[in-house]
Amino acid sequence: MAERQGDGSEQRRAGVTGLSSIDDFWAVLPESVRILALSDGSRVARVAERVWMGGSPLIPELMVQRLHAVPRDGAGDHHLDLRGVVEETRAWALEEAAAAGLDPASWRLGFEVIERWAVDPAEVATLPVAPNAKPEPDPVFEALAVAGEQQMFLHRAEFRRVRAAVAAWRLAQAVEGEGVSDTHYLGGFFQDLGLTLGVAGSTAKNIVHAAHRIEQSLPGVWATFQAAKVPWRSMQAVHAAIDGLHDDVLPAFDEGAVTVLDETPTVLVKDALRRLAERLQASTADDRHEAALRRRAVTIESGRDGMGWLSAYLPMTALKAIDHQLQKAAVRERQRSKDGGGIGVLRADVFQDGLIDALARDNARPDALVPDRRGVQPKIAILIPAMTALGHSDVPPILQGYGPIGIRTALKLAGEAKSWIRVLTDPFTGAVINVGRKKYRPTADMRTLLRLLDGGGRGPGCSRDPADTEVDHNRSFWLHGEQGDTAIDNLMLLSHFDHGAKTAGETDIGMLKDRTAIFTTASGNRYVTRPHDPPEPTPVPPEFLDPDDCPF
Question: Per-domain residue ranges for the chain?
Answer without folding.
Answer: 2-136, 140-293, 297-360, 397-552
